[in-house]
Amino acid sequence: MRRPRIAVSRLAAAATALAITATACSGLNSASGEQEFSGKTLTVAGTWNGGEGKAFRKVLDGFTKKTGAKVKFLSSRAQGRDDFALYIRDLRKSGKTPDVAMVPQVGVLQGFAQKGWLEPLPPEVELEAARNFALVWQNYGSVRRIFYGLYFKASHKSTVWYNPKIFEKAGVQPPKDYAEMIENGEKLAAAGTSAFSVAGKDAWPLTDWFENIYLAQAGPANYAKLATNEIGWTDPTVIKALKTFGKLFKGGKLVEGDGAEALRTDLNESVGAVYDKDPKAAMVYEGDFVAGIISGEFNRDVDEDADFFEFPPVGKDSQAPVISGGDAAVAMKGAKNQQMAMSFIEYLASPDAAEIWAKEGGFLSPNINLNLNAYPDDTTRKVAKSLVDAGEAVQFDMSDQAPGEFGGTPGQGEWLLLQQFIRDPSDPEATAQKLDEAAAKAYLDASATGTTG
């Protein structure tokens, strides 16, 4: 049930330099102009739809241009399927296993590997990953020291977005620590604007709030243990973080409408409360994707009308948290085109592939060799630099690492219990006990069915 953090072997990566010259695996090495996969079709499954789907289609077109391969993209969301793991399971059962899957959660990647659904990535892909990614990203793509997943798209979930005009009017600046952020919130409230709008209706933003507070307050070692249910949710560090989180929802000054209103507010509405024509709050915490909502839903210039600061340290001697998530490319066992799948994943590991989507916007890459000028605005460049500069300090979203029964399902587990908590944050110990019981059951069930690490 517990999985240690492990490093991908550097010896294996170094030893592949000679092997690459002899391998015929990659269709990318086409200096002669030959396109190895011309006339063949690669099938890629992912979650992206709408604007994201169109942007990824351009990435796929880039692979076609390099190799001649046609690429068919299967979007689970376009087919009304929200559970990607079940979507892939059903494709396998119907004999339509995709060549590559873009897995949206590290826990799902681990589950696929443990079920024997994935092919290990070959040395040339590992070498390309070693060139272009911090080791932490390779580790999260590995299960039991075997490299299965190449993280192509990332998110930065430690960004607090604010309305500069409201800050200026209240005479406050981005804070240096959590205590100052709360002090600023009180000043904003006194000036007539609530400090935060919180998307409690969607529930998952509440897990992100808790995780940032917990990582900044309890430190990365405890974060890693809690993420694997090693220390349990009744640990004093959990109760302390719940108390810190709960203070936001007491008194009606810091959160617009307190917990009751937060539970009626989804993510887009929470962003609108800060960036609409008549803002009701000064700040909204969530990931880098808030920038896309600001510009797309509310037609605001992100560089002119918005700004962000990194989620601040919580407590003395603590560090600012950097929490991320992402989508990893994996090669499915039993698919028809494994050689082409490996070449495609090697392509995704390159700065060239990342640059295609970066220019379209709504995208962050953990690729350290991607030129930041590829991003379409200064704000996104700042967020991307913050993520890349964090290097090995990046921690993955805790709820994404947990079994879906606990960390990823509406109306149950952590999502439900944190919703109940912000409605009435008076008893963090009782909430911790309920979280502990729900987590224990979910991890036990996942261990029995082999769906988590």
UniProtKB/TrEMBL annotation:
Signal peptide limits: 1-24
Keyword tags: Signal, Transport
Coiled coil: none
Superkingdom, taxonomy of origin: Bacteria
Pfam families xref list: SBP_bac_1
Keyword presence, Transport: yes
InterPro entries in UniProt: Bact_solute-bd_prot1, SBP
Protein family membership: Belongs to the bacterial solute-binding protein 1 family.
Name of the protein in question: Sugar ABC transporter substrate-binding protein
